[in-house]
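Mods, move this if it's the wrong board.
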Amino acid sequence: MADTKKLTLRLAGRICIVEHVVRDSAGGSRKSYTALFLNTRHNKQLGVQKHKPVLCGSFERIKATIPRRGDSAFADTSGREVGLWSIKGFDLKFDKLDAPATVTTNLDKLVNLNKIFKAVDPNAKWNTPFNLLRASDPRRFGVAARVSLDRFSEIKTVNPPDGEGLSLTFFPGEVPQDVEVMVECTAIFTAGKPGPTIAGASFDGCARPSFDIREETDIEISMSNLCHCAALRDELPPTLASVSGGSVKPKGETGADDLVIDDEEFVVNYELLAHPPAVDRRPVPYRVSGAGGKVPECYRMSRLELESEG
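Not the wrong board. Structure tokens:
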């Protein structure tokens, strides 16, 4: 039996994991998963800070075959060179991974947008799967980058470093929701063959970057969509040790003194709707005052299940 190695991809930030149905070559169907990196400045009236979609990994593990302007690097405490590559405006997919017999998922602790928006507006409609997942340029729908998670055998939520489970309540509807802010994806590849690659295509069709991944060892890389409040540190993905909670303000409109706004940036998720509500009609999650709050807003992820278009 051929020796196999493991590729671990960790995702953090304003990213929505979309579950959708695709047709296979045999005429059947299967579930597939795509990570949408949200453009937090798509609607500037929201006043959300700019987030930067990036790929992060060691130069010992990743080589960009077509480097791009704006890429940067730094050295961690061990002297290892770590690269940061902007993936804004790109579709990315992983090649040369072994096809899994089954795919295991556990995303229940991510904010469930289907459930939240049904409580906010029972008549709300998502943008179509075509617009969000297959349009050649999804930037007009609030998507800054798109990453296919095909061929990953396990996709699950994990606690970030120094993070903790936190239960939020969304108004209206008073929908309770546990929140985890990091997703870990695992794939297998065969050692002794050319290593995995990440193939890219720009939304405007002008560039096709790719990244070669060394195959000799197990590999850990990360992709994030964070603002400047989450300073990159020595670990991959970044530790939260030096970051305090996000914006917290009194929840005056309900008259409850023990509730505070936990995530003002949640308003950007409404941009995924076919007809987003007015800026001042976008409820955000609250939590009980003093109940955790160590995880900054820009790390918060979400999930969405889209129905097949047939």
